Structure formats: structure tokens, C-alpha cells
Write the C-alpha cells for this entry.
Amino acid sequence: MLQHRHLLGIEGLSKAEITTILDLAELYAKQNRSANKHSKVLSGMTQVNMFFEASTRTQASFEIAGKRLGADVMNMQMSASSITKGETLIDTAMTLNAMHPDLLVVRHPHSGAVALLAEKVNCAVLNAGDGRHEHPTQALLDALTIRRAKGRLHRLTIAICGDIAHSRVARSNLLLLGKMENRVRLIGPRSLMPSGIEQLGVEVTDDMAAGLAGADVVMMLRLQKERMDGGFIPSEREYYHRWGLDAAKLAHAKPDAIVMHPGPMNRGVEIDGVLADDINRSVIQEQVEMGVAVRMAVMDLLARGLRAKDDTGVMV
């Protein structure tokens, strides 16, 4: 069981809790490859997915995860909700409380909005991405993918390349990989690096050859144009030439280095399409698969906490 009512970020998780989630997710990954993918872990519980930002992979993954665990799953169409008619986030929280959901999955464009909701509702809240802050389940599924491919999740050299400044995925991965004692390098143009990022104990470079040298894992990030309000890159063509991953650049990494991308991919901008589909190097599709398993594990563990509270009256 987790010692938390909600999953708002990686920052609040201990190394032991991360390992607990990944170990349970391994079991769900095995179950998801079996003929019977369903269980009754969340039977009788209601899961509400509220996505204030468009998402295909994450929302579908949470929906499948909840249904495989036996929950009643509802997707709220936020583009057509009362929010667009002027209702505040707090009003929405109060409305949800009256419906008595058990699990609330939220993606929001503003950092901190999910934590604010968590303060106002009586159910468990899962952060599916808030602004530039965190995307904890993405980091957890990335960690599970790495552990399965490399046989461990410590003392690896991991290169994260691309738009670091606008990426909540990068932030959550930095926190998780740091807790698990890995060497992390950030690669990309200086215009896409947050100021003072070196203080997190990472190496920073704008040179792909130097950054990828000896790397066990190469994680590419999407250019998040929707969060950019200026000229952060000269052109997509120049960006791909200098920072897009292709076979020549990947040759600087270890021969058995794996290639990752949280999706959606901009082929020919962040990564060569042939390399993205190379089953010998790319684990991008496995990341999607592990996403369902990790989200099942997290919801299972949070549900155990909810049931423990119901039994005792206090959160354990």
C-alpha cells in the first residue's frame, strides 16, 4: 500500500514505494498478456477521467486500466463541460464530491491545478499531467520499461534529449531516475533548457555526440510547440539535423542502448521514423503497453488505501 491518498507526483514517493508500484505493475503486465485480462480489484468503485487537455494515449490507458480492474469508468468531456461556461475548478470539485467517485484521474494545462482539486475532493486523485509540473505515471511506466529491458533501474547512464524546458515528462523522470541512483544527461538546445537545471544533479550539454556517449538509455522528447511562445528553435529541419535521433547519432551510445519516446512522436523532427520502428532498439510500443500495467498498479494501491480508511476511519 502507498502512504499517500493521492498520486500527484514522483516528488512525494520514496524509493521503496516506486519499487512497490513497479513490482505490482510487473504482475499486471503479465496478466495483460494472458487470455483473462480482467479482475475485480476495483469492483464497486467509480473512476472518473477529467482531461482538460486532449490526450489519446494517457486517457485510453487509464480507461483500459480501470475497466480491466472492474471499475465503473466515466470519461468527462471537459471541452463541453460547465468549465467552459464559467464554472470554477472548485465548483467542479464540489459537484464531483456530490457524486461520490472513488478515483479521479485529472490532466490539466496549469501546474498545481490537480493538487488544488485533490484538496477539495473526498476521493483519490491521480495526476495525469499538470502544466509543466509533473506526469508521474509516465515516469513510472518509463521506469518499468527500462527495468524490463536492462534488468535493473540503478546505475545506468540515461540521456534525455529535446524539449526539456516545457516537459513535465522530463521533470518526473529526473526525479524518479535520481531517486534510483542513475546518471542522467540532458541534451538539447540551450533555449530549451530550464535555467539552473544543473542544480538537480544532472549533466547538461547541447552536443548529441557527447551526451549520448556510453548511454544505456536514450529518451527522446516531443517538441511541445503548444507551450512555446517564441522562437525556441531555428527550424524543424535544423533541429532534426542537430538534435533529432538517427542511426548515426545513436552509434555514440552503447551497442545495446534502448530508444524511448513518450509520444506522440514527430517523425523526422525528434526521431528518425525507421529507428522509431526498429524492434531491436526501440521500446516505444512497450512503453505504451507498460502504461496500462502501471496505471492498474497505481489505482490498485490507492484503492487499498481507500478501503483501509473505510475500515478504520483513518488513512493508513
Notes: The first strand starts at residue 46 and ends at 51. The radius of gyration is 20 Å. Strands lie at 46-51, 72-76, 103-108, 124-130, 157-161, 183-187, 203-205, 217-220, 258-260. Residues 284-312 form the longest helix (29 residues).
